[in-house]
């Protein structure tokens, strides 16, 4: 890496300036001074050394300076070499050759997180690559950079599907990686209507460039969750319950030099994802079909949804847009690529309470599905399979063709934020979870007495061993302590986009089926502060705080089973 202006200038006028302390070490800090005529400095025992900006990774400032005797901190210096802004804390003297890539105004780079127990083991068919993509106790930085006009267009035209090629630089604590020509677009549907936007990143598919083995990523804005922890808690719960899902970690996002905020980094399920999780990253792995249920296509007129109903032999009815195919189809997807999904729905439709567990097992990994439905209930997922036939994936594993693996995704309306009435989601009686008894897969599967008992057993075990205050709160508290300074930072940043009203056509579509009973008619909610969203009280029967939800739900479930 090259650095310009690498001249450690001593600007402090101090008589006691330490000299002759032996060899210098290298200081590295990620920062974004508000004006290009400002620079970044390290202040070592009261002596200020200007750092140089990296040419290729423009948020990184580095330079040599002595090892501190007492301590050091970073500062932003104006063009007259006066301190413009400074860290209000002192960092302990660093003895190595080169510091990690520290972040301006964050005193810690690696945090102590309390962990969640592994209640259920991951399934044996999962063979995930070892990867440093998600290190939950660190917050790396990612910078999308390129033509500013195009970055502005992407943000201004937030309701359109614009795609641009930008470069992306990842700043880990000990590594910096730049990817050229990354396809960047905005992601999400309802999440486009808020000023803090979410992004999809597609790294070039050819070649070995990947971020720790992954090429398709999402930067989740967490913009509808004032607690910032709902997605983190949901993904961590999936992991503890041995359910295959994306990993999750926090990341800071910049667009050129502009800070955009604190985000969640997740994986999207295009190649090489299936190879990464089922085949240890084998380049020759040929994935099976990975179907996505997304409720309905964007412009879909027919009232047919991704509820796994059998719609007869007319394959067109499977490709209206309610399902998508993520892997397994050729370059151009054909209606026939939905045949296998159709076969699965036909089986579900033919099943009844006499269908044996063995027969079910030929078509579905019932263990994982049961765990996933338990978490849907226990964490109050309101935009998922049971509630809204949305945000789920089904993988046809080539190693056991026709036996689907359920993969849940997209956990923003969970743990107390809801499209449904809160009392239905808080009920300790799983039968009252909206959709439980009407969705083809849950109603058929759990009409089998053995599988229903299994479901009840999983619900109770997960409540006792995971989804309760004693076990979850220490984890949540440690995550909150880590992200607290970044939340404050995030909230101080103006959004890159605007608030937009959800269009009427969208809401009209949503006022009829496919909703389960209990759907709210008014989705507007009173904005909550971070504290109210995390700890409560929310003073609302519509919304629960994260901790309020977990407390009430686990108590209700235990009371239900004690009856
Ligand atoms: C530095 O840049 C700011 C605008 O970004 C400008 O207002 C200020 O005058 C500049 N200062 C100097 C000394 O050039
Ligand atoms: C730094 O400056 C402050 C205020 O002038 C002084 O009290 C302190 O002793 C100095 N520290 C070092 C390590 O020189
Ligand atoms: C990406 O980086 C390369 C190499 O630094 C540069 O040539 C190219 O112009 C950059 N692309 C964009 C979109 O800025
Ligand atoms: C930046 O993008 C705009 C819009 O695509 C284009 O008109 C302009 O030529 C680009 N500028 C550069 C320097 O490539
Ligand atoms: C949906 O309709 C809009 C407006 O008619 C159109 O711009 C858009 O391309 C359509 N999207 C799809 C996926 O067909
Ligand atoms: C299949 O369904 C589509 C969409 O409803 C319809 O247009 C088409 O006529 C149907 N085909 C047959 C053979 O029924
Ligand atoms: C199974 O379903 C049949 C028909 O709906 C019903 O009559 C019967 O009571 C059910 N048996 C059990 C054990 O639920
Ligand atoms: C649970 O809820 C279902 C559906 O509302 C109801 O039929 C059942 O009686 C409830 N069970 C208990 C034990 O309350
Ligand atoms: C540093 O972060 C704190 C909050 O953690 C904030 O109050 C302060 O303004 C920040 N200082 C600078 C110079 O950014
Ligand atoms: C919807 O809920 C919000 C927040 O509770 C409230 O301010 C608004 O008046 C409600 N709108 C309707 C149409 O009831
Ligand atoms: C809830 O009500 C209490 C008591 O009136 C008040 O102190 C608190 O600020 C309210 N919280 C919210 C989120 O409105």
Summarize the structure.
Helix content is 25%, strand content 20%. The chain has 563 residues and is of the alpha+beta class.
Topology overview:
Layout: E1 25-30, E2 39-44, E3 47-50, E4 52-53, E5 60-65, E6 72-77, E7 83-86, E8 102-103, E9 141-145, H1 148-156, E10 163-171, E11 176-186, E12 199-202, E13 216-220, H2 230-240, E14 248-255, E15 258-267, H3 273-278, E16 290-294, E17 323-327, H4 339-350, H5 357-363, H6 366-378, H7 385-388, E18 390-396, E19 404-408, H8 422-426, H9 440-445, H10 449-465, H11 469-492, H12 504-509, H13 530-535, H14 546-562
Parallel strand pairs: 1-8, 9-14
Antiparallel strand pairs: 1-5, 2-3, 2-6, 4-5, 6-7, 9-10, 10-11, 11-12, 12-13, 13-15, 14-15, 16-17, 16-18, 18-19
Helix pairs in contact: 6-10, 10-14
The protein binds 2-acetamido-2-deoxy-beta-D-glucopyranose (11 copies).
Protein name: Coth-domain-containing protein
Keywords: Signal
Pfam families: CotH
Proportion of residues in helical segments? 25-40%
The dominant shape is globular
Which ligands, by name, code or SMILES, are bound? 2-acetamido-2-deoxy-beta-D-glucopyranose
Structural class: alpha+beta
Helical region count? 14
Biggest sheet, spatial arrangement of strands:
9-10-11-12-13-15-14
């Amino acid at each position: 890496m090259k650095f310009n202006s690498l001249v450690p200038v001593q600007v402090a006028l101090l008589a006691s300036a330490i000299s002759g302390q032996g060899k210098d070490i290298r200081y590295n800090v990620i920062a974004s001074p508000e004006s290009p005529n400002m620079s970044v400095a390290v202040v070592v025992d009261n002596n200020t050394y200007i750092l140089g900006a990296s040419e290729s990774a423009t948020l990184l400032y580095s330079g040599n300076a002595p090892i501190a005797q007492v301590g050091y901190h970073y500062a932003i210096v104006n063009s007259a070499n006066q301190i413009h802004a400074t860290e209000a804390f002192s960092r302990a003297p660093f003895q190595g050759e080169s510091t990690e890539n520290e972040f301006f105004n964050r005193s810690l780079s690696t945090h102590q997180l309390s962990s969640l127990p592994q209640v259920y083991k991951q399934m044996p068919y999962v063979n995930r690559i070892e990867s440093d993509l998600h290190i939950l106790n660190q917050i790396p930085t990612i910078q999308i950079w390129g033509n500013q006009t195009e970055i502005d267009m992407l943000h201004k035209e937030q309701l359109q599907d614009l795609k641009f090629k930008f470069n992306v630089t990842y700043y880990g604590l000990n590594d910096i990686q730049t990817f050229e020509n990354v396809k960047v677009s905005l992601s999400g549907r309802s999440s486009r209507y808020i000023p803090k936007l979410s992004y999809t990143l597609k790294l070039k598919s050819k070649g070995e460039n990947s971020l720790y083995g992954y090429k398709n990523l999402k930067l989740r804005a967490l913009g509808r969750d004032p607690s910032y922890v709902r997605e983190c808690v949901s993904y961590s719960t999936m992991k503890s319950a041995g359910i295959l899902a994306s990993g999750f970690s926090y990341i800071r996002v910049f667009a050129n030099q502009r800070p955009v905020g604190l985000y969640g980094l997740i994986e999207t399920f295009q190649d090489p994802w299936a190879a990464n999780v089922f085949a240890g990253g084998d380049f020759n792995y040929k994935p099976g079909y990975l179907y996505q249920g997304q409720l309905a296509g964007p412009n879909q007129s027919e009232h047919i949804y991704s509820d796994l109903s059998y719609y007869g032999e007319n394959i067109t009815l499977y490709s209206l847009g309610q399902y998508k195919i993520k892997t397994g189809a050729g370059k151009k997807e054909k209606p026939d690529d939905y045949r296998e999904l159709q076969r699965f729905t036909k089986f579900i439709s033919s099943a009844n309470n006499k269908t044996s567990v063995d027969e079910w097992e030929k078509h579905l990994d019932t263990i994982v599905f049961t765990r996933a439905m338990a978490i849907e209930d226990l964490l109050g997922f309101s935009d998922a399979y049971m509630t809204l036939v949305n945000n789920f994936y089904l993988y046809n594993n080539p190693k056991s063709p026709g036996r689907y693996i359920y993969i849940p995704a997209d956990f923003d309306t969970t743990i107390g934020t809801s499209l449904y009435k809160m009392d239905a989601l808080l009920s300790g009686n799983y039968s009252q979870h909206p959709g439980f008894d009407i969705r083809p897969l849950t109603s058929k599967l759990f009409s089998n007495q053995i599988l229903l008992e299994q479901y009840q057993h999983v619900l109770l075990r997960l409540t006792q061993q995971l989804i309760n205050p004693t076990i979850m709160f220490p984890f949540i508290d440690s995550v909150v302590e880590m992200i607290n300074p970044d939340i404050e930072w995030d909230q101080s940043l103006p959004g890159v986009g605007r608030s937009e009203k959800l269009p009427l056509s969208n809401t009209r579509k949503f006022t009829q089926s496919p909703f389960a009973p209990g759907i709210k008619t008014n989705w507007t909610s009173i904005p909550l502060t971070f504290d109210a969203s995390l700890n409560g009280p929310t003073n609302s029967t519509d919304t629960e705080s994260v901790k309020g939800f977990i407390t009430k739900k686990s108590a209700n479930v235990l009371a239900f089973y004690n009856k």
